[in-house]
Design goal:
Length: 255
């Protein structure tokens, strides 16, 4: 692949900047976007899933980091991602995300990943995204979730709230966190590594939906996560390492 050959000329940070600039440029070229959309739809692999009471066109989404301020989500959906996790955000930059979402309504499902100022950011963004992913320091999980879940009760529309579990928890601590989540209305988790996805699904008997990520760059890795219980998977660094065609490649081979 030409993209992979070009990547060898640059380090990862430079490749990230080049790819982001490319996607932003494509977003400003309506004809190019139309061609990309046409080609994708013509060869579309349909693997729909309903998770968190949300319909997803396929199980492959994009994790946080590429679209930090909500500028690229629609162009990214042209490449096949069924959801885009915007962020990470806090109170200081969530207003920019909201401005973009108001001016350019989203095609994919939008998750907002919040890693600071959780309650204020959640409240500001509630009406503008499809679901939330909260990354919370271990010693603040219950306090933050209590405040966010209590605030959600004041809204008419129900928006799913997920917790991001980024590292290996001791079994007892993980069971405690998951028990709290299930008892208090957390809708699911974003979980790193296939072994941890399997552990979460086993502890919750498959009743707690999981988005798995584990360096997903191929259908084989995506299938591994799905086979151990993940409902959806998300690509993270794979987009930078393999280019914009990664979602279509995974979906074509998953089929």
């Amino acid at each position: 692949m030409l993209y992979a050959q070009l990547l060898r000329l640059f380090n990862k940070d430079t490749a990230y900047r080049i790819l982001k600039a490319h996607i932003r440029l494509v977003g400003h070229l309506p004809l190019t976007r139309a061609v990309i959309r046409f080609n994708r739809r013509k060869n579309r692999v349909k693997l729909p899933r309903d998770v968190f009471n949300i319909h997803f066109d396929n199980p492959v989404g994009l994790g946080p980091g590429m679209d930090r301020n909500g500028q690229l989500y629609n162009t990214l959906s042209d490449y096949g991602f069924s959801f885009v996790e915007v962020g990470p955000v806090g109170r200081e930059n969530v207003k920019e995300v909201i401005t973009h979402l108001q001016s350019d309504p989203a095609t994919p499902k939008i998750a907002l990943m919040i890693d600071r100022d959780h309650l204020a950011t959640f409240s500001l963004a509630y009406d503008f995204v499809d679901f939330f992913v909260l990354e919370i320091p271990d010693d603040q999980i219950q306090d933050v979730l209590d405040s966010v879940l209590d605030t959600r009760l004041s809204y008419e529309d129900y928006k799913p709230v997920l917790i991001r579990l980024m590292h290996d928890f001791p079994d007892g601590e993980l069971a405690e966190v998951l028990s709290y989540c299930q008892l208090n209305g957390v809708d699911g988790a974003v979980v790193a590594k296939a072994a941890n996805v399997a552990k979460v699904c086993a502890l919750t008997r498959g009743r707690f939906p999981v988005i798995g990520y584990d360096g997903v760059r191929s259908a084989e890795k995506a299938r591994e996560l799905l086979d151990v219980g993940a409902s959806l998977v998300e690509v993270t660094t794979g987009l930078v390492l393999d280019g914009p065609g990664i979602a279509d490649s995974i979906l074509n081979n998953l089929k």
